[in-house]
Design a protein that fits this description.
Radius of gyration of chain B: 19 Å
Structural class of chain A: alpha/beta
CATH architecture of the largest domain in chain A: 3-Layer(aba) Sandwich
Order of helices and strands of chain B: EEEEEEHEHEHEHEEEEEHEHEHH
Strand order of the largest sheet of chain B: 3-4-7-8-9-10-15-16
Helix content of chain A: 10-25%
Oligomer: heterotetramer
Strand content of chain B: 15-25%
Strand content of chain A: 35-45%
Radius of gyration of chain A: 18 Å
Shape of chain B: globular
Number of helices of chain B: 8
Low-confidence stretches of chain B: none
Shape of chain A: globular
CATH class of chain B: Alpha Beta
Bound molecules: flavin-adenine dinucleotide, flavin mononucleotide, FE2/S2 (inorganic) cluster
Number of domains of chain B: 1
Number of domains of chain A: 3
Largest sheet of chain B: 8 strands, parallel, barrel
Order of helices and strands of chain A: EEEEEEHEEHHEHEEHEHEEEE
Number of helices of chain A: 6
């Protein structure tokens, strides 16, 4: 099924706080999106009010097509004015959704998948794990292990949603209040030697600092890794050039790529981790 | 002239030699090379489209973060990233040629000569109907100030471009000046066919938790509804100061905003930041203006341009 | 210097000879003569209060509408309505004398001499601790432009006021200029003790249904959050250009906004439009700054002033 | 009881559309206002969101003090961004209210009262009529006649609230869809000769054009009239000088007065009706 990119007026079906400061919003959209690829995102904006001005990008966390409509879920954390406004949305409110946008994760590679999530970065990985499992008939059983990091026990999100799809979910908290004490990349670093390089692929999403640390861990390991990057976005469709991320080009030089268009998912080795 | 509302009003306007099917143009740097918006609207409906600023050589642009939202505004420091004039001609122009709308190339340079060379290269490119000269570039000589802030330099660039092309030349003015009409008059005298204004206003934003600027480039240009009152005034003053047509812009989000500029005397308007909020914003604006004309029983858009009545009641 | 958070941080700042108990001052024209706000807050908590602009003779002001809201902004054309310097001294000063806060009189004139005369009359009035000289007045000679837009005239007014008073002289700059630092330097050289900026930006708004300006005065001055990014930049640039203290303002609505200016180098800040949204806004700002210092373990407000770090990461 | 002026966070109790585009919002405020004088107003702002920036002025339409809290009702028409936002408020939402503000109507004069209302201008007159009746014991029976004008039948507001307090409610609509066809001042002009000049007082509120027409009708009639004026307001407390209305001064010259402080209620003859 082909993907249609549209700006739609959707209706909020539910909007609940699932962990401290973290919410899941479910939105019903008219028409069908076609298959969203995990890692793709939407530009989201409440349907009324003039502030904030711009839409905000959120990874699609789940998608259900039901006859004539599409339901999507977004998992978000309140960090500023836009997400604070979003948390006030109630059932029946109208919202604007543009998408699905960007390049998602490659889905078919690897017989073993490692997911590395920092905070709300878990959102596209939940979608990835579920879809990977659903497609298993065709491609044989996949082993999925997820590493999930958060500041503390209270702000862990998505674990209960990952568990049904994963063989194992490992948790790291900065303060050790649940699981490993430390960052999720430290937790993963301890395990990395046990994985069989050629069979596994890594899919990661989280703050840049986490992804950068992950790049360090994987450096020279020969494990294929894709990361979903975040940058501030104005348009989400490749027009404003606001969401530039620095990449290494084939010839050894550097250049910028648009997170919203060439990304948000990039091959880890393409990113220039030294600088924005 | 009044109409009974049965016929659709005339929406065509002319900017010198340039005839636009309606007065709504997408602003440079906010509509990519047009392609990006094709999934969301029929580009042929546009009055015109100004292409992202083009320089002689490709430019990489600034580090991220390049944008930050401010109250009713957008602060950007893209750094004029673009593919360069040659790649524009080979890679981007072919798509634009397929469109039935007026295409205006926005050009800039770091020197007067670069402006002239880019203008020269774009002259004769089939899809390019006019040039918009962006003189809001930081100029090495005057350290940080825009070329366009100095009437003398602005006029010099205008003359150079005028000589390098036979296309209509629209000079885009910067609002970061004490008196925009002084620059406008000099640019008119130097041979511009039209003026467009305003470009962004210089601004900055500070992250108080890190004590660092929110933009990697420290400063940026402010666009969006926040600047509209400043833009409307500058357009109104400029319209009175020159006799060439003026294209107005700055914070136009909907048809009502567009009409403010048209009533103040702008012959056409450009829409920038609004394209980011809704990629089909320009269509809503075109339809909204047409509806307003119908409601007001005006059968020609030109009959409302410059009708601002400032007499005391 | 770091603190363990047990003690309250020092909030006092000095602007030359003037010592303020905290850096939060109410801006001219937005806080009346202080009295109006007495029911809503303890005025003694203010770092300072700038009085509505005072001219030599009473001024009636402009016809209505005098204000219109724009996106995140307020456009006003009050027309400098005020009771005049004599009535100020007899009717308004006695209340101000009862307060334990720094009172700054904002003055303006239509000529250099008028400035000097108003300054002279206010010197020695017990409640007046300093003068803020508003040079954003339309000047007949240069038709429409502000006196403060011309470095030469700005310096002349500064010199005249300097000679007419022994009070600290703060010159309030207009943002409607190409290069505010050029004006700032001239005003500094002419003897100002401090600078305050920014005043409002010139703007207008059109009622599209009547094709008339929304303000009876046609044009007005834009204040409020919309202008904050422009104000922060001008303050930051001015701080680097002069060695006298700079007071920052423009769109400060809360403590975070105030901190942007302080980090950018302002020694104190003024709060204008926010007083209209919440008459006790300044108290929230004072408390919020203090809390921020506590959270950041900084025990003196002066330790965060000018700490903006613009190096690339 | 003394009046306390405060800025309070209130809670929306109800917010209903009562006529096309016209709403009544009921807000509960902590603490007591003291007796609000009809004609006084509040500055009102939704408690969340940044646009619009400024509070909006609304006349108090009713006030109930219940032990610890005050409930006020505002009657409003959606005309722009601020009132559109207001119409979205729902029960339980928080709002900011500053007031009561300004000078209300004189309450004790006149044995016969004529109320002249244009559109939502009826709000303070409803309050006035109710309070006048409630105080009747002390001052003897008052005859109250109300003239209410609206564009058409569908946008007539407040009549059902006026009727319990009034001896007569006369209606004018521009299109004649209910009552007299024409403006409310034309309707009143037809009746004015029947009133006994010295015994009646007029209390009026509505658009400036209506009040100005009323001033014409009453010109030289010797009937005492107070009008509630509207101007755009920023602060509502006399500080910004934004709400200036032109008045005739004793010496024959003109000057400006603040609608929020010296008004909104003025004696009709003090207003300079020729210009703003
Ligand atoms: C492709 C993509 C997918 C995303 N998916 C999710 C998701 O599934 N769930 C989720 O909670 N968040 C997600 N984000 C981040 C989300 O867009 C931001 O949190 C949101 O825009 C913040 O808006 P705000 O107005 O609340 O905060 P603001 O006031 O705009 O900013 C608050 C803080 O967040 C930072 N910030 C703001 N926008 C971004 C951004 N785009 N990237 C990185 N940092 C930012 C700012 O620097 C600031 O420190 C995603 C971002 C991108 C680019
Ligand atoms: C003392 C006072 C009491 C009022 N009481 C009521 C009331 O009980 N019910 C009610 O519905 N309205 C009342 N108003 C008017 C009300 O304040 C305005 O309708 C409201 O501010 C409009 O806000 P907005 O954002 O929806 O419209 P805007 O977008 O601000 O304006 C829409 C239109 O309304 C006009 N307008 C806006 N504000 C005012 C104003 N203050 N005075 C006159 N015209 C204005 C504008 O010129 C414009 O044409 C009162 C006004 C005052 C001054
Ligand atoms: C992200 C961005 C990029 C821009 N790039 C250019 C450019 O390349 N050349 C130019 O002349 N103007 C550029 N502009 C300015 C716009 O064309 C326009 O003048 C300005 O944004 C004001 O209009 P608006 O408020 O409708 O956005 C850019 C603006 C934005 C927001
Ligand atoms: C209604 C109003 C009246 C003002 N009157 C004066 C004045 O008399 N003198 C002056 O120097 N500035 C005056 N100003 C400018 C403010 O002091 C301040 O510089 C400006 O509003 C920017 O700050 P803000 O965005 O916090 O309001 C006035 C501003 C407003 C909104
Ligand atoms: S967000 Fe505009 S180009 Fe990516
Ligand atoms: S509204 Fe500010 S003085 Fe009346």
């Amino acid at each position: 099924m082909e993907q249609t990119q549209k700006r739609e007026t959707g209706i909020v079906r539910s909007n609940r706080e699932t962990a401290r400061g973290h919410y899941v919003i479910e939105v019903e959209l008219p028409g069908l999106f076609g298959v969203v690829c995990p890692g793709q995102f939407v530009m989201f904006r409440p349907g009324t009010g003039e502030t904030p001005l711009l839409s905000r990008p959120f990874s699609v966390c789940s998608q259900t097509e039901t006859g004539e409509t599409t339901r999507i879920e977004l998992l978000y954390r309140v960090v500023g004015a836009g997400t604070a406004r979003m948390a006030l949305l109630r059932q029946g409110d109208t919202v604007n959704v543009l998408g699905p946008l960007g390049r998602g994760f490659d889905m078919d590679e690897g017989r073993r998948v490692i997911l590395v999530a920092g905070g709300v970065g878990v959102a596209p990985l939940i979608f990835y794990a579920g879809l990977r499992r659903a497609r298993e008939e065709d491609s044989g059983r996949v082993r999925i292990v997820a590493y999930v990091g958060a500041a503390d026990e209270e702000s862990i999100v998505g674990v209960e949603r990952l568990e049904p799809h994963c063989d194992e979910v490992k948790i790291a908290t900065d303060d050790g209040s649940r699981g490993f004490r430390g960052t999720v990349t430290e937790l993963f670093r301890n395990d990395v030697k046990y994985y069989e390089k050629k069979a596994v692929v890594v899919r990661a999403c989280g703050p840049r600092a986490m992804l950068s640390a992950l790049a360090d861990v994987l450096d020279g390991q020969g494990i294929a890794c894709q990361v979903s990057m975040e940058e501030r976005m104005a348009c989400g469709i490749g027009a404003c050039l606001g969401c530039a991320v620095k990449v290494r080009l084939g010839d050894g030089s550097v250049g910028y790529r648009r997170v919203c268009k060439e990304g948000p998912v990039f091959d880890m080795e393409d990113i220039d981790w030294h600088e924005n | 002239m009044k109409t009974d509302g049965a016929e659709r009003p005339n929406m065509a306007v002319s900017i010198g030699r340039l005839v636009l099917k309606n007065p709504v143009i997408t602003a440079s740097g906010t509509f990519g090379y047009g392609e990006e918006f094709a999934p969301y609207l029929d580009l042929d409906r546009l009055g015109g489209m100004v292409i992202k600023g083009i320089s002689e050589k490709p430019r990489m642009g600034n580090p991220s973060p390049r944008i930050v939202e401010t109250p009713s505004g957008l602060l950007n420091a893209i750094g004029l990233e673009n593919v360069g004039v040659d790649a524009f001609i080979t890679e981007k122009a072919p798509f634009l040629e397929t469109l039935d709308t007026t295409v205006i190339a926005n050009i800039f340079g770091e020197s007067v000569d670069e402006y002239a060379r880019v203008a020269g290269k774009l002259t004769g490119v089939k899809c390019v109907d006019a040039l918009e000269v962006n003189i809001s570039c930081p100029n090495v000589k005057r350290g940080g100030m825009d070329i366009g802030a100095d009437p003398e330099q602005a006029a010099e660039v205008t003359r150079a471009v005028r000589q390098a092309t036979n296309l209509p030349v629209i000079v885009k003015l910067t609002p970061n000046v004490t008196d925009i009409t002084a620059v406008a008059r000099r640019v008119e005298a130097a041979g511009a066919d039209a003026l467009s204004l305003i470009n962004t206003l210089r601004g900055m934003s500070v992250d108080i938790y890190t004590a660092r600027p929110r933009l990697a480039n420290v400063t940026g240009g402010l666009s969006g509804p926040a600047i509209r009152p400043l833009a409307v005034l500058m357009v109104w003053e400029t319209v009175q100061a020159v006799s060439i047509p003026v294209i107005g812009m700055g914070g136009i989000m909907n048809a009502c905003d567009a009409l403010e500029f048209l009533i103040a005397g702008a012959r056409a308007i450009e829409v920038g930041t609004a394209n980011f909020v809704n990629p089909a914003a320009v269509l809503d604006i075109i339809d909204g203006i047409e509806r307003h004309l119908g409601d007001a029983c005006v059968d020609d858009i030109n009959d409302i341009i410059g009708t601002l009545d400032c007499r005391r009641k």
